[in-house]
Structure of Biopolymer transport protein ExbB:
Amino acid sequence: MISRFTGFLAAIAMVATLAVSPAHAQDQKPADAASAIADAAPAPAAAPSKPAENPYSLANIAAHGNVVDQVVLVILGIMSMGSWYILVVRLWDTSKLSSEAKDVRATFFKKASLADGVRGLKEESAFRYIASTAIDASEHHEGALTENIDHSSWVTMNVDRAVSDVNTKISAGLGFLATVGSTAPFIGLFGTVWGILNALTAIGLAGQASIDKVAGPVGAALIMTAIGLVVAVPAVLGYNWLVNRNKTVMSQVRAFAGDLHGVLMGNRAVAKR
């Protein structure tokens, strides 16, 4: 009897096990599938890291450098802006004067009189200034002080003075260009020496002489020399270029002044007859 009852319980337990196993298998399968999908899904891309700020860049030196570095940068900046301003203005002046010289040579001496020729020139023209000065000197050669100077010499003196005034005007600023060209590299070099001195002092105090501790500060200091050269080279080239242009233009101005002097002397000789 007991053995039969035991067998009956074993049969019930077997049936219960078979009933629970399929349901457990079905529950496990979706869980395993979800886990597989999660493993197969790509991981989210990491956000791009922001590049580290270079502590030795020119912008950083200008914003956070010491007083000497900032003063050197300001001086070189003023030199550069002044050089380019003078280059542009003097180039415009010489170009305008050269264009006027061609027109004057073609039209001035074909007028009926010197007065008509002067009226045909622009008010601000250098050639009108020279012509007016020469005519005034020719017509007002009188007085106790000028009687001892002959008429030709008197007119020549006034014409030469007017030509010299024109030359001074178109040559204004060339001295600044020459100064910038000769001193800007040394100002940049001073900034470099000062930067290297500070860098080596900081390295000595820190007690570290690795390449990353030396290359950065020294490289930043060398920027000053590079800036000095960038400022100096255009100034030197511009100075030489403008000097040659001035020589060419002033030769045309002097030719006009010489012809004008000859016309004035010829008119006076005719008037004396």
The two ends are 175 Å apart (CA to CA). The CA atoms of residues 137 and 155 lie 6 Å apart. The helical segments are 2-40, 58-64, 67-107, 114-119, 126-139, 151-170, 174-206, 211-272. Residues 1-31 form one domain.
